Amino acid sequence: MQHRIIVLGAGYSGAIAAGRLARRLRREDVAITLVNAEPDFVERVRMHQLAVGQELTPRPFSEMFAGTGVELKLAKVTGVDADRKTVTVDADGPEELPYDTLVYALGSGWNTQGVPGTAEHAHDIAARPGALRLRERLAGLAAGEPVVVVGAGLTGLEAATEIAEARPDLDVSLAARGELGDWLSPKGRRHVRKVTGKLGITVHEHTAVTSVGADRVTTADGRTLPAAVTLWTAGFAVHPLAGATALETTGTGQIVVDDTMRSVSHPDVYAIGDAALVMGPGDKPLRMSCASGIPTAWQAADSVAARLTGGKIPHAPLRYFNQCVSLGRKEGLIQYVTADDRAVNAALTGRFAAFYKELVCKGAAWGVANPTLGIPTRSRGVVAATPETSATPLRPAA
């Protein structure tokens, strides 16, 4: 009987994990099902580009996984019963899917932080629907109308600069809770200030937004900033589904895993990407990002394959090398960091940095679109079932 593997979510981490499992394991031994609500891959790191009217390359899952043995199920995940080892999905109606191994990769979404008026009046670019709504709204703005981007982390910086470059006729401002680029090196901070100044972006530093209205935002110090459009980029929140299960989770809903991405409470469940609490160098949790999600997907897929085939579990390098920031289409910043994500003095800036960031984005998309290439082929040889695997383990492939 085939070992049933279900992967929930087909973002960067989920899609890569499904493809890597297909490459590692033999089709006659495993049935791999990838559950996702949309039929094509969404390049989340490009949502700011989509929001200003740029067209993105379509990447249908039906083409990406053709011939791999991965079955795509278009459905919304509505529940996980980790004790009964079932997943409930809804496509044309509710359906229960049993699994032997579950890879949970439902990721994260918009986080309003509970700030009054944000859900009703602000826009988001955490996913494609939000980016498309913002795109329509921006297209309808007249020259001189104000746009406020709340949150000056990587997402906010990229969004503000992209909007200001694409629509120089708009009055774009950026509300930063602290100093602009305060996590960057001095060189990085100088470059961010230079680019935002050149693009005409008004930066409000040390500014906490306490409420969002239809045409304004209000700050903690009582100021009112006019806003025909407010874009809220102040963090992400994990999908709430895991927190409603028997899985051990953190207070924020992330699944607690060991260094192989395996749930510490349910050994048949692996969690990856934003959905998992993964400890990196310095015993610090990895931040929610594509840079974190991809290596956790490698680790989970390799761990599952090794346990099912009786092989040795390899360990992916869960560390950081740089932060890649696009600042419009013509400018960028590559901030080099320590393994635990602290900025060092080295940084690349300007057009070369923009080109570098574009290569990184294309490389990540290529890895998702070609998930079964570039890694060892399938293993052979069935091993006996053990309590640890809780299923019938398989063969290493050829």
From TrEMBL:
Q: Which SUPFAM superfamilies match?
A: FAD/NAD(P)-binding domain
InterPro entries the record matches: FAD/NAD-bd_sf, FAD/NAD-binding_dom, NADH-Q_oxidoreductase
Name any cofactors this protein relies on: FAD
Q: Does the keyword Oxidoreductase apply?
A: yes
Top-level taxon of origin: Bacteria
Q: Where is the FAD/NAD(P)-binding domain?
A: 4-301
Q: Return any one Pfam family short name.
A: Pyr_redox_2
Is the keyword Thylakoid in the record? no
Instruction: State the UniProt keywords alphabetically.
Output: FAD, Flavoprotein, Oxidoreductase
- Name the protein family: Belongs to the NADH dehydrogenase family.
Q: What is this protein called?
A: FAD-dependent oxidoreductase
The source organism is Streptomyces edwardsiae
